[in-house]
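Regression report. Comparing outputs from two consecutive submissions.

Submission 1:
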Amino acid sequence: MAYYRRMGDIPGKRHTMFRKPDGTLYREQVMGTKGFSGIQSILYHHYPPTAVGKAEVYAAFDIEFEEQGALRHRHLLTGDCSDTGDAVAGRRYMLGNEDLLIAIANVDRPMDYFYRNGDGDELLFVHEGEGTVETMFGTLRYRPGDYIVIPIGTIYRVIPEPGRTKLLAVETNSWITTPNRYRNAHGQLLEHSPFCERDFRGPEKLDTYAELGEFEVRTKSRGHIHLHMFNHHPFDVVGWDGYLYPWIFNIADFEPITGRIHMPPPIHQTFEGNNFVICSFVPRLYDYHPEGIPAPYFHSNVDSDEVLYYVRGNFMSRKGVKEGSITLHPSGIPHGPHPGKIEDSIGKKETTELAVMIDTFRPLRVVKQALAYEDSQYMYSWCADSQEASRTV
């Protein structure tokens, strides 16, 4: 969601002398995407952002996927995952492909190090909890329902308030932005967009730390986590301006698009990246044609895998899902409402469901550690007697 922002102190013109009170120069850093052709921001540091006292490999970043099995619908009960940790090391990966990884995290402690993703943007959806994300661009406060978008290369750490923060994390190898069809040629959101610029929150304050010492920054890149020991605090920025920075959009600010008959999933689209889209299913009025069927029709994912993360409410087309459930409906086979859900939907006027959908245009694979939370009977739950069906397959 690119529009111009400015925080802190900056010189009147870029690439010119900008001096500290003692007469020495602040260090200018241009941080941009797509070479020098994408969006960018310019940051001004007390110290060179290249001042690293030690660089070494911290750990291999190697996700182990399951072996190829039968093509089937999957259901992961991630609410059963009791593992805890910080917002990065505590991630438990569930699904992934060449374009993104999907994880959950039960965050019960602050990060005692700094982190940056050198491969692509990250999106953190806050299912539960409150806290702050401290970044080189400033601090953002988060609350339930927030989508937190952190651009590639941004140094940050997450500080939860006491109690648990539950996150859905999407790590990409590309960018995350709003759908192009919602914007005009100048980048402004159009009148028919389900949100506008007022709904987006950038950093609230810029705290500058000029202290020297040893500060651990872990960087994810090239299949490894790298350790860079800075000689200064990485949040030494006195000011910045531009179009590249972390931002937040709350799912409650998504204004649903409705119609007389059932509308297809693209009306729920909120973000897009390379080979994937992210959609928001929010409380909304149902279809109002006198003979309309609110439940979705059966449909085939011809060229995309569909993932749903269930946040709360009674999802109108599903049985057996819980808060924190993740379902995967892969391309190649059709999916649709569970038995009885079509009939149950007739005559209903609204829904209070809340869910995040991720559609990928390359096949997803299930991470081995996610198998511990799988509902193995989900594929057969469309049969009248799923237990009997499972014995005959």
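Submission 2:
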Amino acid sequence: MSYLQTQTLSHAQKVRRLYKNGLRLMQSMYGTDRVEMRYWSVLLRAKFDEHKNEIDFRKAKELLMAGEQKLWENQHPQPYLYAHSPGGICYGREVKLPDWILDTWTPQEKAQYPEYFARREIRKREYIERWENKYGKTSNDAH
């Protein structure tokens, strides 16, 4: 969930995101033609550089809002998405199994990886000791 916005963005961060989203739009539009994509990317950069030293905050805010509006109007119907990013075809496909699943293995299965399970037992013991030092021993008689 690292892609969720949890804090207020500064003006500079908004401008950088607008520029990056503009480049992503170029990639969606001209992704197969590298020369065409590079041409439009250079023109986009020139537009941003043209106003990079704007000192009037109202004007800068208007430019940012106009850029966001233009980006919204020119959305691609099928934007390019990286496979493992949210919305990509592989996002959330790989199931992350919890560690306790390895405790259910039979001794014959564990015998196939003796070094790994020996090291794992040491790490589990260390983890339990750290937990007990920090929070105290757990009582199984609490019920």
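Expected: both submissions complete independently.
Actual: both completed, but the second showed a warning that disappeared on reload.
Relevant detail on submission 2: The chain has a mean pLDDT of 90.
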